[in-house]
Amino acid sequence: MLTEFRTDAAPLQARYDDALSGLRANLHALPGYGGGPVLFEGAEYKGIWLECGPHEGAVYGALVDPRVGLDCHRAFFHAQREDGYLPCYLQTHKNGTAHVQTVVPVAKSALEVYGQTEDRAFLEEAYAACSRYDDWLSAHRDTRGAGLCELFCEWDTGHDHSPRVSGLPHECPNDDARVCPDVPGKALPWLAPDLSATVYGSRVALAAMARTLGRDAEAGSWNDKAEATRRALLSWCFDPEACCFFDLDADGRFVRIRGAAMLNVLQEHVPDASLFDALYRRHVQNPEAFWTPYPFPSVAADDPAFARDLPHNSWGGPTQALTALRAPRWMEHYGRHADLAHLMARWVEALARADGFRQQLHPWTGEMIPAAPGFPGDGYSPSMLVLLDFVARLYGVRAAGGGAAGALEWNCRLPDGATESLYRRETPRGTAELTVTAAAGGGQVAVLRLGGRHVAEVAGGPCRLVTDAAGIPIDLIGTEPGLARAVRAETSAGKVFAALAPDEWQPLGE
Fold first, then answer.
1. For the chain, first and last CA: distance in Å?
2. How many helices (H) and strands (E) does the chain have?
3. CA-based radius of gyration for the chain
4. Taking Cα atoms as reference points, which of 501, 464, 459 lies closest to residue 484?
5. Cα–Cα distance between 299 and 313 in angstroms, integer?
6. What are the sequence ranges of the domains in the chain?
7. CATH fold group of domain 3-395
8. Backbone CA torsion sign across 332, 338, 344, 346
9. 117 contacts 69 by C-beta, under 8 angstroms
10. Residue 403 pLDDT exceeds 80
């Protein structure tokens, strides 16, 4: 086990331990795949889906066991068809072939797993498989020649029961993801912003893989293809008046549902800083839209299509664990550290008081939405991973970027209701240990050690201290929403006093 967390906040500790044991129970062997066990989605989902399983394996690998991350990718590569198609899911009795359902780019999560393991053979395997899958998508999901990825059916998106895909068939005809159905009144295929953003993110990752493998010419080609996809996405699927990304049907009409597809575009860093800020202020940070007390609803709360009955397994309104698990992928990139901390704290609070790990939260109360009758609701891997990952990002030590040997992030924050917490992480330089205790009169004191050596002491308000792999301090970052918080950091470079505002960076050079 790579990490360990201990706190005297008893409900949180109990749920954290439950999440670890629940995830272990969701590790299963796949018939026909000769590698190790993979992480099943859990609850009613008895298998591993392309949209989320490789990413979840990468998260599990970064926190618990990197071998699982390798196998959650290799199982799909092993099942890849000769024409390059990657199954949309792998179950014990069949491999899915009736849709694409690619949301988090498998190339990008594979690159993260390589960063954890430095397994060059795996990187070669991933590069070959993901290159072939890109060829398949270009051949079969760009029939309109727009340079984007097209949506044929509901399950392409992973957004089950979303009003966005109302009236579309679940799957493609004849169990064949290459065949676009004929649906009267729907003008298929649609140019899909989230699927296209996934292609863009995959090509960015393939360029990075090629550079690592010494294939510089191929890296340049992938970068060119990625930029062409990004430009096409902005040209076809962005509505400047609404300041939002939408599907575009074959008759040139936007499907005007403000939902999680827009967040998936942010996830792949398609908008530049200026466009991101406009989107963020108008939609994401808007409490009437996506910034509900428990962010993010799967459709904007003020959208007429929002499903106010909040049904089971619905991307029409409920706040989804999968959206939460993906949020750090874009909120960190765009520097929204404090808002991310708020989102994570709300999820940790909700999960700590819940009676199980289910798929969805109520956007206003944080209650977990019960499963439909006849469906097992508990044991959902994404919710358990949300708790483990968010604890690490709020109260623990992380390898920056998910790699094994890079910079370290020390998240100096005490859990709600706690007077002490301890987080340990194994690194190539020894055990990173972060101890946080409540200070007399208020505030907290965090002590950072690496390989038994004192790194720093940080007192005052919550913040993040970033060091290099050897524990040399680099930056302080304000991760607390609201007003600036006074922080005192004692490092080898001396004492630093700062009033850290949300998202502020304070350099700590030697």
1. 33
2. 13, 24
3. 22
4. 501
5. 13
6. 3-395, 408-507
7. Glycosyltransferase (1.50.10)
8. negative
9. yes
10. no
Question: What three-state secondary structure class fits 380?
Answer: strand
315, two tokens = 């991307």
- Report the candidate in 307, 265, 261, 300 with the shortest Cα–Cα distance to residue 283: 300
d(Cα 185, Cα 188) in Å, to the nearest integer? 9
Q: Which residue has the tokens 């590698």?
A: 35
Cα of 20 vs its chain's centroid, Å: 19
Token pair listed for 463:
């913040």
**Cα angle 376, 382, 19; round to 5:** 80
**Residue written as token pair 């400047």:** 240
- How long is the chain? 510
Helix axes 106-117, 120-140, angle to 10 degrees: 180
Distance CA 170, CA 354 (A): 31
Taking alpha carbons only, the member of 170, 231, 142, 159 closest to residue 194 is 159
Q: How far is CA 298 from the centre of its chain?
A: 15
pLDDT band at 404 (very low <50, low <70, confident <90, very high): low
φ/ψ of residue 381, rounded to 5:
-55, -45
Question: pTM for the whole thing?
Answer: 0.97
Confidence band of 177 (pLDDT split at 50, 70, 90): very high
